[in-house]
Specification:
The complex is a heterodimer.
Chain A (H helix, E strand, L loop, with lengths): L1 H28 L10 H12 L2 H34 L1 H16 L2 H12 L3 H25 L3 H9 L4 H38 L5 H10 L3 H29 L4 H9 L1
Chain B lengths: L8 E10 L6 E11 L4 E5 L6 H9 L6 E6 L2 E2 L1 E2 L2 E2 L1 H4 L2 E4 L11 H11 L4 H14 L15 H13 L5 E5 L7 H18 L2 E6 L2 H7 L2 E6 L4 E7 L14 H16 L2
Parallel strand pairs in B: 3-10, 3-11, 8-9, 9-10
Antiparallel strand pairs in B: 1-2, 1-4, 4-5, 6-7, 11-12
Classes of the chains: A mainly alpha, B alpha/beta.
Chain lengths: ~260, ~260
């Protein structure tokens, strides 16, 4: 078991290092300009320079606030609408085709419009983040709250459960694993939404900073921003994954993970 | 019929039709049956004869097209609505254990008490005691997924018994288990039902199981779905597995088989 665990850590680490070494060798041998592709070491030093600048944390905070607010809005709307449509057939018939049509619009293309409507501040970015994160939560919630088995409902009927008990002890725990899987996708989408919004307009946030770096041809700095964005995205994703393990410890996806690790 | 009926369960002219017009399928027709307190009866028939539908109507899970089910002088279906008063003393066990993975074994067993608002300490105490009775001692904190099929049905049985029901409805609860486990659980079921004077209805397609457990076997036929015969099982109680080897028991199996095939 000990060697298994060692290999599970050593193998991916080796892959990453091999990639970074290949990258470095390529930049040196092909004599690529640092304006086009800096070496990993240049990016690391740019990253250290970036995170030691206190201004950066202001930008990072803005992006996090936008992504998290958009995510929360998407989760609240997605779960309530998904749940309502799972319960009331008429609501689904009335609204689902409409919502699916909305989903088919490439929402990134709507981003400039949101800037026009909601201005250059945080609001427009929150709306874009929410628009991107909404659908995975909604569609998963719709399926999840509908997947309660009739046989399980029969048990609760025989036990004379009231509607509140039914919801908290049957519908909610049945739906949670699937809803949380949707939230894992959504948190990544909300991050993308916030960054795209910042690309287009405004003067705050890491997306804005990336564009500013590019305009000044500070390519190592641009990479450093991307690294920071990746780390923030990873942190948010890990938080939701942790939440899943904590809220649904019985579920196969969670149980399987703990057996592996 | 007299008004002061002493029967525990009365099934009066129950019929059920699925669909309408030309597509209508008769699932059960004109079923009438009286059961006394502590009676153990089996509904025996081929698949598709409507035995599960009849049990679900008695449980209040399916609405009959006509007729009435009366449990302890209360109608299960009042004005087209399920009466929670009438079905309160009724427990049901299903083909699958239907345990909930988000609860531990003991929490699953205690669920009916929790839904009735019984305090945590009391329900834990009763769940642990009942786990011991059905042979699940030491597994109270386990997740249902950690149990074997037979142990899951034990937990399901404990959940059905924890409310101290007066009526127990069993829909082939041990059908998916191996013969040995099935015998053991049937013996335990019989002793529990006898001890607590529980009125029990078992749906099964096993002739041996029906003859061994029941006071009376209700034989059903399909197309059209109906009760063809009600046969007394005149064997002394308490019964042991030895009974199954005796000639009179074997004769009864022949008789039941004839009744089943004659119904076609």
């Amino acid at each position: 078991m000990g060697t298994d665990r060692f290999i599970r850590i050593a193998l991916p680490t080796a892959t990453v290092f091999a990639f970074l070494i290949a990258w470095t060798v390529y930049v040196h041998t092909a004599e690529v300009s640092a304006f086009i592709l800096p070496t990993p070491m240049q990016i690391v030093s740019a990253f250290i320079g970036l995170v030691s600048d206190p201004d950066i944390w202001g930008h990072a905070l803005v992006t996090v606030i936008e992504a998290v607010s958009g995510f929360v809005i998407a989760v609240v709307l997605g779960i309530s609408l998904g749940m309502a449509m799972a319960r009331v057939q008429m609501l689904e018939w009335a609204f689902k085709p409409f919502i699916v049509c909305l989903q088919l619009i490439p929402k990134i293309a709507l981003a400039p419009l949101f800037i026009l409507w909601f201005g250059f501040g945080l609001e427009s970015k929150i709306v874009i983040a929410a628009a991107l994160a909404f659908f995975p939560v909604f569609s998963n919630a719709l399926v999840a709250f509908r997947s309660v088995e009739p046989g399980d409902r029969d048990v609760f009927t025989m036990l004379q459960a009231n509607p509140v008990q039914r919801f908290t002890m049957l519908d909610l725990p049945t739906a949670l694993p699937v809803v949380l899987a949707g939230m894992e996708v959504a948190v990544v989408m909300s991050m993308i939404g916030a960054i795209v919004g910042e690309f287009i307009g405004g003067n705050e946030g890491l997306g804005y900073l990336a564009v500013a770096m590019l305009q000044e041809l500070q390519v190592p700095g641009l990479f450093a921003v991307i690294v920071l964005l990746t780390l923030i995205g990873l942190t948010l994703y890990t938080l939701i994954a942790q939440l899943r393990g904590w809220l649904t410890p019985w579920h196969a996806s969670v149980a399987g993970k703990s057996r592996d690790g | 019929m007299n008004i002061e009926n002493t029967a525990d369960i009365r099934i009066v002219g129950i019929g059920k039709t699925f669909g309408q017009g030309e597509n209508a399928v008769r699932a059960i027709g004109d079923a009438t049956l009286d059961m006394q307190r502590g009676d153990f009866i089996s509904l025996l028939g081929p698949s598709g004869c409507g035995k599960t539908t009849l049990l679900r109507i008695i449980a209040g899970l399916e609405q009959p097209s006509e007729g009435e089910v009366i449990v302890r002088n209360r109608s299960v279906w009042e004005g087209g609505k399920r009466s929670s008063e009438a079905t309160r003393p009724v427990s049901m066990m299903f083909q699958e254990a239907r345990l909930f993975p988000w609860f531990s074994v003991a929490e699953n067993v205690a669920l009916p008490l929790r839904l009735r608002g019984v305090k945590r300490v009391e329900r834990e105490e009763r769940a642990h005691a009942l786990c011991e009775t059905v042979g699940l001692k030491g597994f109270e904190k386990a997740r249902p997924s950690a149990l074997s099929g037979g142990m899951r049905q034990r937990a399901s049985l404990a959940r059905a018994l924890i409310t101290e029901p007066q009526v127990l409805l069993l829909d082939e609860p041990f059908g998916a288990l191996d013969a040995m486990t099935r015998d053991t659980l049937n013996m335990e079921l019989m002793s529990v039902c006898a001890k607590a004077q529980v009125t029990t209805i078992l749906v099964t397609h096993s002739i041996t199981e029906a003859a061994f457990l029941s006071d009376r076997v209700v034989v059903l036929a399909s197309r059209p779905a109906r009760i063809t015969e009600v046969i007394e099982m005149p064997f002394e109680r308490p019964r042991t597995l030895d009974l199954q080897r005796k000639p009179e028991f074997q004769d009864m199996l022949v008789r039941l088989r004839a009744s089943l095939t004659g119904g076609h």
